[in-house]
């Protein structure tokens, strides 16, 4: 039974805190802090109504390290769960180091002035976390997060080596709005408008954003256009699955979404370069994010399903008598219903598919199922741990998965 401090009060945090409260045997004492305390209070109220559990709330600017350290010392959690924005990763890691507490997040650090999506800044904390005897678990959402766990499960149970990997992220949900993003608009648009990068023969290959499009027939959703783009788990997968010859990430977008995004980009509204407006500097993308629908407001109207998974091709594990399995391809995925997610936690499936793995990753750390070699601390990615206990919890806590053998490698 542990005390946990969650930072951030958006859609992902809301799901994670609800799920923690539903598992009071693991998360006995839940504390929630964010920049706007009223958002924490409304999550706490919903949690109380749905589960009967209390959540203590606080106001915090997570970029103020001394204030974060004070809050951690006051709450005395065993783990700080960072569900604010990627910009806050490093200050929160600094505060965890100073206070000697484990850390977890769902997205890698990004400097505000460049959309880079790299692990290098956080990996550089490894020795300091090791010395302090605490651990940081990076990227415990769905993608990154579950997609890496899916890959490592295939590598443990089906494939000796993985030659080719494709991550397919489909959101078949319809929220009835002309244009809206399903998680933080600023981070989402930075990600989508960045050049695409995929891993091929030992290096990243860069191509223009949204230039490669393929139609794929997703179970429970139907045919959708998906676009190749860069996603941060490609970096950790390339590091921890070194035999990979090719790894790519695909995300679906409707034509209407692409049309709006193209226009906004063409007129400069997605830029992160500050411009002078009425005597003060504003960042066009931040202004755009302020006028777009809030992701947490979409839950009530969103219908349809998400289908996110991994297709991996490689050399199959040997049979029970040592017989060679040859090359095989497996598809492992989860299908999540927006309306079911909303009924359970008051949030749509994109927040749900991120918040549940954040809860599960927290359970892995708090229960000691995942820890560094010889119990030592450090900064770790999802690929470095046994996938089995995490996969069991996915089945038990609302994100059941399915694995199927395909006839052969993907043809796109
Ligand atoms: P939201 O924008 O809905 O919520 C972010 C929250 O962080 C808000 O409550 C915001 O406060 C708070 N916040 C921002 N800055 C600070 C600060 N300086 N100090 C304290 N709190 C702050 O985002 P989401 O819930 O959609 O996403 C949360 C995280 O999850 C993001 O990092 C996102 O990239 C990640 N994510 C990961 C996915 C995965 O699969 N791995 C998928 C989807 C999202 P305020 O309300 O005052 O603005």
Outline the structure in words:
The chain is 35% helix and 28% strand. With 412 residues, the chain is an alpha/beta fold. The protein folds into 2 domains: 2-142 and 353-395, NAD(P)-binding Rossmann-like Domain (Rossmann fold, 3-Layer(aba) Sandwich), CATH 3.40.50.720; 146-347 and 400-406, 2-Layer Sandwich (Dihydrodipicolinate Reductase, domain 2). The strands form 3 sheets. Strands 7, 8, 9, 10, 11, 12, 15, 16 and 18 form a 9-stranded mixed β-sheet that branches. A 7-stranded parallel β-sheet has the order 3-2-1-4-5-6-17, with helices on both faces. The chain has a two-stranded antiparallel sheet with strand order 13-14. The protein is globular. 48% of the residues are buried. The mean pLDDT is 96. Bound molecules: NADPH dihydro-nicotinamide-adenine-dinucleotide phosphate. NADPH dihydro-nicotinamide-adenine-dinucleotide phosphate (NDP) binds at residues 7-13, 34-36, 39, 60-63, 83-86, 88, 106-107, 141-145, 183-184, 187, 295-296, 354. This is Saccharopine dehydrogenase family protein. It holds the Pfam family Sacchrp_dh_NADP.
Give the cofactors and ligands: NADPH dihydro-nicotinamide-adenine-dinucleotide phosphate
Strand segment tally: 18
Architecture (CATH level 2) name of the largest domain: 2-Layer Sandwich
- Overall helicity: 25-40%
The CATH topology of the largest domain is given as Dihydrodipicolinate Reductase, domain 2
The overall pLDDT, averaged over residues, is 96
CATH superfamily of the largest domain: Dihydrodipicolinate Reductase, domain 2
Radius of gyration of CA atoms, rounded to a whole number: 21 Å
- The total domain count is 2
Shape: globular
Strand content: 25-35%
* Span of the ends, CA to CA: 48 Å
Weakly predicted, low-confidence segments: none
């Amino acid at each position: 039974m542990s005390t946990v401090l969650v930072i951030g009060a958006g859609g992902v945090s809301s799901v994670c805190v609800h799920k923690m409260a539903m598992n009071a045997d693991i998360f006995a004492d839940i504390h929630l802090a964010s920049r706007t305390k009223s958002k924490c209070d409304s999550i706490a109220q919903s949690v109380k109504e749905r589960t009967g559990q209390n959540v203590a709330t606080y106001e915090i600017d997570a970029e103020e390290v001394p204030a974060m350290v004070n809050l951690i010392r006051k709450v005395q959690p065993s783990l700080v769960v960072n569900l604010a924005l990627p910009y806050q990763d490093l200050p929160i890691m600094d505060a965890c180091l100073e206070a000697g507490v484990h850390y977890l997040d769902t997205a890698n650090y990004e400097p505000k002035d460049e959309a880079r999506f790299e692990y290098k800044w956080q990996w550089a904390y490894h020795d300091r976390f090791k010395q302090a005897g605490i651990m940081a678990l990076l990227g415990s959402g769905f993608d990154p997060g579950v997609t890496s766990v899916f890959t490592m499960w295939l590598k443990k149970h089906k494939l000796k080596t993985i030659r080719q990997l494709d991550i397919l992220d489909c959101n078949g949900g319809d929220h009835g709005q002309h244009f809206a993003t399903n998680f933080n608009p600023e981070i989402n648009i930075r990600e989508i408008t960045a050049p695409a990068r995929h891993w091929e023969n030992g290096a990243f290959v860069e191509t223009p954003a949204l230039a490669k499009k393929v139609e794929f027939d997703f179970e429970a959703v139907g045919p959708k256009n998906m676009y190749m783009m860069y996603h941060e788990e490609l970096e950790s997968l390339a590091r921890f699955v070194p035999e990979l010859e090719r790894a790519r990430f695909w995300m679906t977008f409707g034509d209407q979404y692409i049309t709006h995004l193209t226009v906004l980009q063409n007129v400069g509204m997605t830029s992160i370069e500050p411009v002078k407006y009425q005597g003060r500097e504003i960042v066009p993308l931040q202004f755009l994010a302020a006028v777009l629908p809030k992701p947490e407001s979409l839950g009530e109207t969103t219908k349809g399903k998400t289908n996110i998974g991994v297709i991996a091709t490689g050399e199959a594990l040997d049979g029970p008598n040592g017989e060679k399995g040859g090359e095989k391809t497996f598809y492992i995925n989860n299908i999540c219903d927006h309306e079911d997610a909303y009924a359970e936690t008051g949030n749509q499936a994109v927040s749900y598919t991120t918040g549940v793995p954040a809860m599960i990753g927290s359970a892995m750390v708090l229960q000691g199922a995942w820890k560094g070699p010889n119990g030592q601390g450090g900064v770790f990615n999802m690929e470095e741990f046994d996938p089995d206990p995490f996969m069991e919890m996915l089945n038990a806590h609302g994100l059941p998965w399915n694995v199927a053998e395909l006839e052969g490698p993907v043809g796109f």
